[in-house]
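Our working data are protein records whose layout never changes between entries. Instead of coordinates, the fold is spelled out as a row of discrete tokens. Here is such a record, shown just as it appears in the course material:
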Amino acid sequence: MIYGIGTDICDIRRIRETFERRGERFAEKVLGPHEIEVFRERLAKVPARGIAYLATRFSAKEAFSKAIGMGMRMPMTWRACEIVKAPSGKPEIRLHDGLAAWFDAKGLKAHVTVSDETDYATAFVVVETRP
């Protein structure tokens, strides 16, 4: 049964401007431990790819917070929710700390998809109850 859905669209230009103003502190606030490593690798190779990665993760976390009906308040934090890639390439949600405990206690499972184009990143999340 569906517990909640969330979607978000993000202007990559806005993320780029924020990153230019605040530097890596912005990325470190939004990205979890695994994500920050991927971000740094992508940014070093092709800066636009790094910024697009940051934008898709920002968008996915916003969509996830909407799907669980919590918004950005405890235990939902930027770094407690990571969007990682499964071996197949499929994006998945990995939760940490209190958010992971809350999610497991509710018996929930999440599905996420992300996409980006030149100026926009988008994400869609479906959260369902586990059978």
Q: What stands out?
A: The first helix runs from residue 12 to 22. Residues 10 and 121 are 5 Å apart (CA to CA).
